[in-house]
Amino acid sequence: MWKDTDVLLVIDVQNDFCPGGKLAVPGGNEVVPLINRLAHSFRHAVLTQDWHPANHASFAANHPGAAPFSLTEMPYGPQVLWPTHCVQGTDGAAFHAALRTDPAQLIILPETAIPAFFDQLPMHYIEALKAAAQRHGGDIILGTLTGGGERYFNSAISLGQSPLQVYSKSHLVPFGEFIPPFFRWFIDLMVIPLGDFNRGALPQPTFDWQGQRLAATICYENLFSEELASQFLMDAKAPTILVNVSNLGWFGEHLAMDQHLHIARMRSLEFDRPFLLATNTGLTAFVDNRARVTSVAASHQATALHSVVEGRTGITPYAWWVARWSQWPMMFMGLGLLLSAWFRRPGKASRSRGLSP
Prior knowledge:
Elements lengths: L6 E5 L20 H8 L4 E5 L22 E4 L2 E4 L25 E3 L14 H13 L3 E10 L2 E10 L4 E4 L15 H7 L16 E3 L2 E7 L6 H5 L11 E6 L9 H16 L3 E5 L5 E3 L5 E4 L20 H9 L2 H16 L2 H9 L3
């Protein structure tokens, strides 16, 4: 087993050094599958590229009449003159196409990353998504719409190495995803073409990924800890990683984006689990099981956030309690403590003593 301080160093696995390239090494491409397998065992990998300007002094083409692999004298001594290779920005300088330069085994995209019904997407597009995940030996989780007929859901789906898995949002946004009771008249009066999503069931199965169990939530559902707790009745089936996908575009630059991240940090503490958040405008972040934000992406910028995450097992006292009795007993206990403090407050005791004979 490699240590966290070990590094996989991959040297110049580029097209020009592979069969068909300008300076091909026989069998150079045969190391690519091995590198891809090793990369998943290392926390850190460094890939180097030969990256020459076109007028590099070591190229034979820049010495009139010189043949490739001939020698010439340089101020520092003899120099082999090479065929022109790995010129900056050319296909020859690019990494071999099969080399996994981004070996992420789990790719998470935001809520409604695909703003269309999944079953209406062209099959070739779905297959391309699966292939992209499978190239990394993992899965993609993304937000889309599911359902048909008169039942529609705001969902997160997982596809790739694992079979298709679906989570459908349960806590819907009033007037955004459903019309509250007794308010349909207002929508009709305003002639707003707004329909209702259906609620997903509670609880729903976790996503299986690389031996981990991922509990998905969408948007502000990470606020409801008692619903996450319902999946912690048995350690053998409890989530090992928490995931939230959100479309936070309507927040703008509002403080609510920071609140969304802080809510996830609280859930991490309650359940002793890492929390992964993927949003379209911010804040995309990785939170460890101690509620520490290990990395966060800048808001309102196109970017990708990379990190290593390790699932956790075990049931916290909070999760054990809330999974069985929800939060009502604790709320009543808290109310009892407040009432006890109220009746025992010093001011009340003083007035009572003043009325004594």
